[in-house]
Amino acid sequence: MTLGSKGVLGRDILWDASYTRGHNDFHFFVKNSLNSSLGDSSPTAFDSGGTKYTQDVLSLDLSKKIGKLNVAAGAEFRHENYRIYSGQEESYVLGSYSGYAGAQGFPGFQPQNEVDKNRHNAAAYVDLKYELNRDLTLGAASRYEKYSDFGETLNEKLSATYKLTPDILLRSSASTGFRAPSLTQAYYTSTVSMMVDYELYQAGTFATDHPLSVALGAKELDAEKSKHLSLGGVYSPNSNFSLSLDYFYTKIDDRIMMSGEIYEGMSQDIKSILNSYSVNSARYFMNSADTKTDGIDLRANYKHFFENNTYAKFIASYHRHDTNIERTTDAPVILGESGDEILLDEYTISTIQDGQPKESIKLYMQYFFKDYIFALNINRFDSFKSGSYKFGAKTVTDVDLTYNIDKSAYVTIGAENIFDVYPDTWEPAGMIPYSQHSPFGFSGAFYYLRAGIKF
Asked: Which of 121, 163, 164, 161 is nearest to 143 (CA)?
């Protein structure tokens, strides 16, 4: 929910104030299962508890044009609350009929998993844009933030655009960035059960400040810090055609990721720690690595008018990027010689560097005829990898037709992925045959009828 208002103060100062509240409640239920430790008295359906997140944001933005200088400034206050609430007792309790607690498939959140954490941060920014002359525009911006749990940060951005000729515009920007760990990353805790070699296996995810995580070498999460650079240009000989090419570079330090599974077979000390919390393996969020991403974006826009008072818009774009791990965090001593490979395993490394298509092509067309608009969208995704598995390139096509009933109402019929394309499956395919990292999902075709009123 967002409420806001905007207007003009004295001396032509534009203002915009708003309040936004967002909330979600992710509640887990398990059916057609049992808690084997309760024997015949076990229910077959469970309320397993869940998680809640609430965010409140207050913001105020001011702007004014002073000759050739545009000045903008503002402030923001954000409050967050994250909760984990436990399920019914039978969903997590350990009975006397087996050594495995909780409902099979997803044991409920336990009272010791419960979390109720709050944090807030305040921020202020200033943004300046100066038109030095008709050809050169310079920009500078700075944002200060103070978190109740992660301290202060100051980030800056510099930008410039230069009209080399009437048809060619050059542009560039450089900036720094900051992302505090989410409350979920810092405080999420749960335990799940699975079958391994025909035996139940308990695997846990623990907050970084949980005694088990601390015993296994976890450290308090630090914020991610980043640096960004972009260089490019636009060629536009007329209002109906433009061609742009941009190079981008992003470096992220202390990137937050989930560790690999720390399992009891690594050593007797680790087994003792895990078993004291009734799990066979554990993992936690950590500042795992520094990464670098760079690439290019190429885009062409064209508008064509026909003799029958109809026209079409065309967009063609090409994207390519490469992501590489520059540095990894050393594993805690307790994990031994194999610790580095456990905390950042082959699957995670592959997902970071190759888990998204390095290349993609997009072709988009709209045809406007009287009260009708026809749209065709073709996306070509390059191959990608997850661990040792390689998934082939795919092409996905979307279409829709809109009829404008009048100036305020319209109806649209369309389809996403109209040819019902699916990503390649794992080999061999199991209960979850598709990679969660597929760039176009794994739900096949989607058809829709949409109506709207503008007022």
From this structure: 121
Nearest to 139 by CA among 172, 103, 170: 172
202 vs 358, which has greater pLDDT? 358
**Distance, CA of 195 to CA of 201 (rounded, Å):** 6
CATH number at residue 253: 2.40.170.20
User: Considering the domain boundaries, does residue 431 fall inside one?
Assistant: yes
Range of 349's domain?
132-353
Q: Is the pLDDT of residue 195 over 70?
A: no
CA–CA separation, 165 vs 169, rounded Å?
A: 7
Tell which phi-psi region holds residue 131, choosing left (phi > 0), alpha (psi between -120 and 50) or beta. Answer: beta
Q: Which of 185-194, 252-261, 324-333, 419-428 has the lowest mean pLDDT?
A: 185-194
Q: Is-contact 218 282, C-beta < 8 A?
A: no
In this prediction the pTM is 0.85
DSSP state string for 26-86 = EEEEEES---GGGGGG--SEEEEEEEEEEEEEEEEEEEEEETTEEEEEEEEEEEEEEEEE-
Torsion, Cα of 340, 346, 352, 357 (10° steps): 170
CB 50 within 8 A of CB 88: no
